[in-house]
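Reopening closed ticket. The problem is back. First fold of the pair:
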Amino acid sequence: MEPDIVLSADRIVTRYGGIKALHGVSLSVKRGQIVALLGANGAGKSTTLRTLSGLIAASSGSVRFLGEDITKVPAHRLPHRGLVHVPEGRRIFGDMTIKENLDLGSFTLADDVERRRRLDHVFELFPILARRQNGDARNLSGGEQQMLAIGRALMAAPKVLLLDEPSMGLAPQLIKEVMNIVQRLNREGVTILLVEQNSKVALKFADYGYVLKAGRIVLEGLGSDLASNEAVISAYLGGVAA
């Protein structure tokens, strides 16, 4: 693996029962990049992230992270290594407080000073979470829940962040706010693999992009090239060029 590549998939095949969802997907993410994984509903985007993070076992192929083969590593061990997954749908715990949700992101951390430093960073990124930290997470809006899901992931101090549809269901202004945070995290040194159905949003930020169709990578290239290619957007992503 090239020195700059921090996460890669090599011909991964993933099945749900007897149904093959991924057909030999290969991709790579370089240190410091935002990489977009694009495609229509059912293309295999979320399945790819779940396979990379160990939530679903690949039937064949391999996944490497920071030079190590992690294909067989249990999902719960990967955040400690720096690979953290923010799933589609946020998956927050509504009957727990905002702070309790955040604390779950660093539950194995013994250093209370470091935990407080991480928490302060999350509260600086998302002031609304600081103001409402003692309230139940169920009372947050959709955009605030997305902020909480990202904040919880940041408590694990990720080296690579897997973000699944962070803009889903959000109003345009909230999408802009969340994506600005994504860009800031990247500037702070977090490498990001971003799954998005909203190609216009993703390609404004992405250094590189992959397009999935029916469980196969059908196209890849610089984010700026994909964003300006009307034929690509129309054929594979169901829209118009950004």
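Second fold of the pair, where the issue appears:
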Amino acid sequence: MAKITASVYTSHVPAIGAALDLGKTQEPYWQPVFQGYDFSKQWMKDNKPDVIFLVYNDHATAFSLDFIPTFAIGTAAEFQPADEGWGPRPVPKVIGHPELASHIAQSVIQQDFDLTIVNKMDVDHGLTVPLSLMCGQPEAWPCPVIPFAVNVVQYPVPSGQRCFNLGQAIRKAVESFDADLNVQIWGTGGMSHQLQGPRAGLINPEFDNAFLDKLIADPRAAAAIPHIDYVREAGSEGIELVMWLIARGAMADVAGGPAPKLAHRFYHVPASNTAVGHVILENQQA
């Protein structure tokens, strides 16, 4: 049967993609950011999955403000990098896994979560930057990827608890797929940041690191954080952190298994107008 072996959490700052694409990773400003992923790139080579289930948010690329699904799963065979106004990123196209994606959609909907099924969409930096950070600049991504887009752009957005519960449903869906697949689930976005208004440029390292502490050791406490705390403490765009809770909810300990192993933790300020947070958790055998 398929199983989730690890979860990966990372910011998906668009400027990181630009720094990579323009060869700026060794510049003094960017070097500390990318050094935080040196371990992760080697870890990825040593722990290559068969499929990545990647939770991210679309930035008005595949979905406009005219049509915003709360949760959308990509079931296509492939997804092209999106043109976000300055041309598509020079990265490989994303190969999907229609069979597993369709199975997850069926299972999760039967567990009473409403998903939008997307058979064609382009994927923006929210998805491609995490792949670049973990995989470098390959000719092709190392495995198929299932895109899972969450609305954290236009209110109302899903609660952390709703996302955490959804992660548990996704784990059950993966484990009921009749194939021997090693699946990783990635939660991306965040951390504290605000892009507009009087608090533009807000970064709250204390909140960010407290969130990471809870995410690792007390995920139910992280899931219980109310929306107003994200807005007040982490800025208007800090709500992206609820997407990390989908990945955390899919880990084995939430269903009574052993606590995951913390393989890597990284936090750095600044990266563009925000911070970069990154965690890798590995499921352990009972």
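Update: turned out to be a display glitch only; the data is intact. The first strand starts at residue 3 and ends at 10. The two ends are 16 Å apart (CA to CA). Please close again.
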